[in-house]
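ugh ok fine here u go
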Amino acid sequence: MASQLVNLVFDSALPRDLAGFWEGLFSWDAPFQPAFRSEAVPKRGKNRLHLDLTSRSPGHQAELVDRALSLGARHIDIGQGPPEEKRVPWVVLADPEGNEFCVLEPREQYEGAGAIASVVTDALDPERLARFWAAALGWEIGVREKTIVGLRPPGGRGPWVEFLATKEEKQHKNRLRFEIAPRRGKSRAAEVRRLRELGATGQGSARQGAVAMVDPEGNEFTVLAPR
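structure:
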């Protein structure tokens, strides 16, 4: 048994405005959907999860960056240096609420991904976290490098799910998180038990009809009813 990835939740002070930013930036063509939820607690520190966006050419990359800036994004430096120095080939931005994301240079690995190359999670142990999510979702590990381990989307279409090495401990509730669900006809209770056996822990009910859990590194996720 494996769950399917249903939603990527964004906690937001102004959910409609934040949804408008992302809708204006690109057409969301991922198999899972964005869900913008009201959250009064302000963002603190760098997000544990972020999006990497694909580009088809250097010109397309520049176009995406310009569009994001026109919609309210801004350049940020998280260690890669200021954009004018071009120390890295990707561009690091933050959306209007400070959520970090990257506009990647063209990469062969993401040719079939669509607009979103991957959802990246900072991890103290990328290998361990990748194994957990591979088992949870039934995805295969497609990339295993020194600092990053990536799960290939089923059929090779859609965003990857990747785990990037960090030395920073998780300190705050994630503002981006996954919602998953068992396949239709399967038992959510059985799936929650399976996820616990894989290393997740339960936190009780997040809201009616959902079970809140955390993965082995404390990243929050929710198990919905079967889909």
